[in-house]
């Protein structure tokens, strides 16, 4: 039987090139597992603050916060955005990027358990910048990291506490995360470096 012959359930687009890493339903399942892991590790939702790293980490943090509140049957989990632009170590090498917004929940981050949320973990330099940005804002009791995809190739001693999918990749590839409400479609694909997959994945 070829891939094209297979019956594909609704929500699982046929992927003749085998590039799809996670479909939309699989992304949801990964996030739900991460929400449970965060709760288990933190022994509940007390003192949790989720901070998404723009761009797509913001959407993921907000989804995780909603899932944690639903699972724990508690009030809203504080969630915010952490812009890292001015803390990047490649500011002089990269084309200029406009800073995005940083939004810290009303209760602040002092003494809290901050979970940084991003879509892809690669060199680790974004997370290093995030830790730098965080230090300007307060002193959390602990900082943890949740990512949807860990594609390896770390250049710094940084690891994620919660990972949706560990994906061994080559440097020549790029992992592209698309989130509904942000990109139109929703999936994660691996593509040749420099290429961009446009449009709805379905
Ligand atoms: O571990 P690293 O090597 O730092 O790579 C991971 C970062 O790269 C991507 O962000 P990008 O800078 O492409 O911006 P985007 O989130 O706006 O796509 C991704 O969203 C991560 O934040
Ligand atoms: O493959 C990669 C590397 C960094 N950031 C991404 O979003 N994808």
Automatic annotation (TrEMBL):
Enzymatic reactions: UMP + diphosphate = 5-phospho-alpha-D-ribose 1-diphosphate + uracil
CDD domains: PRTases_typeI (cd06223)
Keywords (A to Z) from UniProt: Glycosyltransferase, Transcription, Transcription regulation, Transferase
Keyword Transferase in annotation: yes
Domain Phosphoribosyltransferase: from-to ranges: 21-172
Motif (PRPP-binding): 114-126
InterPro entries, per the entry: PRTase-like (IPR029057), PRTase_dom (IPR000836), PyrR (IPR023050), PyrR_bifunctional (IPR050137)
SUPFAM superfamilies: PRTase-like (SSF53271)
Domain of life: Bacteria
A Pfam family this chain is assigned to: Pribosyltran
This enzyme's EC code(s): 2.4.2.9
Entry's Gene Ontology molecular function annotations: glycosyltransferase activity
Broad enzyme group: transferase
Its job: Regulates the transcription of the pyrimidine nucleotide (pyr) operon in response to exogenous pyrimidines.
HAMAP family per the UniProt record, alphabetical: PyrR
Record-stated family: Belongs to the purine/pyrimidine phosphoribosyltransferase family. PyrR subfamily.
Name of this chain's protein: Bifunctional protein PyrR
């Amino acid at each position: 039987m070829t891939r094209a012959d297979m019956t594909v359930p609704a929500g699982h687009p046929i992927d003749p090139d085998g590039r799809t890493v996670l479909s939309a339903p699989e992304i949801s399942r990964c996030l739900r597992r991460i929400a449970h892991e965060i709760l288990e590790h933190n022994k509940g939702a007390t003192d949790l603050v989720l901070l998404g790293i723009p761009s797509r980490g913001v959407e993921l943090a907000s989804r995780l916060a909603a899932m944690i509140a639903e699972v724990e049957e508690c009030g809203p989990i504080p969630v915010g955005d952490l812009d890292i632009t001015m803390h990047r170590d490649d500011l002089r090498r990269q084309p200029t990027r406009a800073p995005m917004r940083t939004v810290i929940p009303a209760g602040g981050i002092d003494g809290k358990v901050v979970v940084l949320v991003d879509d892809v973990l690669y060199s680790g330099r974004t997370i290093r910048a995030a830790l730098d940005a965080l230090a300007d804002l307060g002193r959390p009791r602990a900082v943890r990291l949740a990512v949807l995809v860990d594609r390896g190739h770390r250049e710094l001693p940084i690891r994620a506490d919660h990972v949706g999918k560990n994906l061994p990749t080559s440097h020549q590839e790029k992992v592209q995360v698309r989130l509904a409400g942000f990109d139109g479609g929703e999936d994660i694909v691996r593509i040749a470096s420099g290429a961009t997959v446009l449009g709805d994945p379905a």
